[in-house]
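User: Let's play a game. I give you a shape written as tokens, and you guess the letters that built it. Ready? Here's round one.
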């Protein structure tokens, strides 16, 4: 489910089944030498987030991405997210990012770091295969939390 009016209405009607929130964290590096890599990471993370949402519709809500720049304090952002997202009634919160620096930040929920793969030069079929492979990497983290392990 996506963070839109229609899906939010469904969420309010079926809260007991939609127990997971996915929060994409997008780093936009505005330095000229990192701009292309940053754009590529953004594209990859958005494709992966959309694919995860499709696979777990009815179980998971996907927030719009939280976007930040290279000058953002991740510790401060983590504190703000922790404070604000705890108010939501989701049993499980997962953050999805390609920025390794998030692995050292305290957050409310589970941080999933996955390295970015440049998708821009791939044909549609190969891109889909890569995204499916990445979901298989993320799946154990999700199911471990869902099963209470």
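Assistant: Ready! My guess for every position:
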């Amino acid at each position: 489910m996506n963070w839109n009016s229609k899906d939010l209405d469904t969420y309010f009607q079926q809260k007991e089944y939609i127990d997971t929130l996915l929060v994409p964290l997008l780093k936009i590096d505005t330095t000229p030498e990192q701009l292309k890599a940053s754009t590529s990471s953004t594209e990859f993370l958005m494709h992966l987030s959309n694919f995860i949402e499709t696979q777990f519709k009815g179980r998971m809500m996907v927030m719009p991405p939280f976007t930040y720049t290279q000058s953002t304090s991740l510790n401060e952002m983590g504190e703000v997210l922790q404070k604000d997202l705890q108010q939501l009634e989701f049993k499980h919160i997962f953050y999805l990012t390609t920025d390794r620096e998030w692995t050292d930040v305290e957050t409310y929920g589970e941080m999933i770091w996955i390295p970015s793969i440049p998708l821009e030069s791939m044909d549609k079929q190969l891109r889909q295969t890569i995204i499916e492979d990445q979901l298989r990497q993320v799946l154990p983290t999700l199911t471990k939390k869902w099963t209470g392990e």
